[in-house]
Amino acid sequence: xxxxxxxxxxxxxxxxxxxxxxxxxxxxxxxxxxxxxxxxxxxxxxxxxxxxxxxxxxxxxxxxxxxxxxxxxxxxxxxxxxxxxxxxxxxxxxxxxxxxxxxxxxxxxxxxxxxxxxxxxxxxxxxxxxxxxxxxxxxxxxxxxxxxxxxxxxxxxxxxxxxxxxxxxxxxxxxxxxxxxxxxxxxxxxxxxxxxxxxxxxxxxxxxxxxxxxxxxxxxxxxxxxxxxxxxxxxxxxxxxxxxxxxxxxxxxxxxxxxxxxxxxxxxxxxxxxxxxxxxxxxxxxxxxxxxxxxxxxxxxxxxxxxxxxxx
Length: 312
Known about the structure:
The chain has helices at 21-34, 51-60, 72-82, 99-104, 110-119, 143-150, 153-159, 163-174, 235-244; strands at 10-15, 39-45, 65-70, 88-93, 121-130, 133-135, 138-142, 178-183, 192-197, 199-203, 207-208, 212-213, 225-230, 256-261, 263-269, 273-276, 279-283, 286-299. It is an alpha+beta fold and 312 residues long. The strands form four sheets. Strands 6-5-18-15-8-9 form a six-stranded antiparallel sheet. A six-stranded antiparallel sheet has the order 14-13-10-7-16-17. A four-stranded parallel sheet has the order 2-1-3-4, with helices on both faces. This is Lipid kinase. Belongs to the diacylglycerol/lipid kinase family. GO terms for molecular function: ATP binding; kinase activity; metal ion binding.
């Protein structure tokens, strides 16, 4: 039986400013309808600011399946309205990085992504919380904020996934080290103070930044956050960190401190913007926590990234 039959009312919402959104909207609608997904409403939104409003309205109207087309920023902008709710989330990855989709094994090919919505299984995944902002992948301060500033829409269109390493080089050349203090409200680690940091990141999912690994054992339903602080201890050591980012092995480098926890408070000097899933939406100090099983998502039947939701 197609999974679409399990849902009564579905809505399709596509960010047509995402990297491939404009081309994908009509094809996605046609494919989902042909696969039996009960689409009652569909929206092609040129202004990303309207995405949260559209998602909230469809949930309030009783839709139990929200199919969203866009990238990680699109997902992060609407997840607050879906967290801990009854509606199920279907994702069509149309962005540049698509790290949330990569974590869950959701294909970036539109045909296969639509089939995942129609025939996939529902799983529960954790969400991160930065004060009162939910996020799916990583929240961070330092170098990542510079990357976000350097990652212009024009660069994304020209370079695709290569936009991230290009922006990282630009951000590194302009980076100013900062100091930070990590405290752990649940007492699972001693407080830690650092000088001259490159970055502090708090990861919920497995991937960020176009395929970089948060940590070797990171998972999206393990009930914990992976926290790391990177110190620029010289060019050779920093080069090692950058080289190992693709595998997550960087957490074992001498210039990296790594913690696993459910809650952490971050203070910095000076106060710094917080990059949440690629958007600068907060400022330090900030407290991070994990919310287990907060989001219901459709994934491919063979995905092993998260446990199945037994209520569906």
